[in-house]
Design a protein that fits this description.
Blueprint (H helix, E strand, L loop, with lengths): L4 H17 L12 H7 L1 H13 L2 H8 L7 H11 L8 H4 L7 E5 L3 H10 L9 E5 L27 H11 L8 H7 L7 H9 L3 H13 L4 H10 L1
């Protein structure tokens, strides 16, 4: 609620650039903003209204924990979030065919699509299936959260190689020991080491990842060396 419409739209454009940078095939990818698309596609808005008719205020309060002081935008948004799971929301792509939907999402989005799974059959659609993705932890550790107000909690796609190197070396939480001698003797803890955790996402060679884990856990690989591998990856 603290964002203006203009700020939200700017963030949406930035997010779209991030998606494109991940290598999605432009011929198979349709990225849209609700600000623009709802006004251009009557079928999308019709599906929003159909979903809204299927969910009561008591239900959304129970699912999302809304209170009497929450703005009405929060109450109306779940239906907007759910509508893209219905293929007829995109007639220019699917026509009027009712095609099953697969939704990759983070666990915090699960309530929206559990609601969608309840509504979809009532509207004649298959229940959408979900793939829950894993959160990338903040640089400060697995039990901390990335923050948009603190740029040192995350590595951004817009960061320069120099910025990435500085962030990893300065802020990435280490699972190593307090001294080289102790580390050689006891080894590092890959479960809490952020450099290793990031490699689980970005290093494509699984065999190499297993080798790094073995070397770090045994103490043969030092924290600085592990961070160097991440920076170069």
């Amino acid at each position: 609620k603290d964002l203006t419409v203009e700020e939200a739209n700017k963030m949406a454009i930035s997010n779209a650039k991030d998606i494109i940078a991940c290598g999605f095939d432009v011929k198979k990818t349709f990225i849209f903003s609700d600000f623009n698309y709802i006004g251009q596609c009557p079928e999308f808005y019709k599906n929003i209204v159909r979903i809204q008719k299927c969910v009561t205020f008591n239900q959304v309060k129970g699912i999302f924990g809304f209170g009497d002081s929450d703005v009405i935008g929060k109450i109306s948004f779940p239906a907007i979030q759910a509508a893209p799971a219905l293929s007829t929301s995109f007639p220019q792509i699917f026509g009027n065919k009712k095609i099953p939907c697969l939704i990759p999402c983070a666990i915090d989005q699960d309530p929206y699509f559990r609601m969608t799974r309840d509504v979809a059959p009532r509207l004649g659609y298959s229940k959408p299936a979900l793939l829950h993705s894993t959160f990338i932890p903040a640089l400060q550790g697995a039990h901390t959260k990335m923050s948009g107000s603190d740029e040192n909690t995350a590595i951004f796609l817009t960061d320069s190689p120099k910025q990435i190197k500085t962030k990893v070396n300065k802020y990435a939480f280490s699972g190593g020991q307090t001294s080289i001698e102790e580390h050689r003797k006891l080894g590092g803890d890959c479960k809490v080491d952020i450099s290793y955790q990031y490699l689980r996402f970005f290093l494509e060679d699984d065999e190499r990842l297993k080798e790094i884990e073995k070397e770090y856990t045994s103490g043969n690989l030092l924290t600085g060396e592990l961070k160097k591998i991440l920076i170069e990856t």
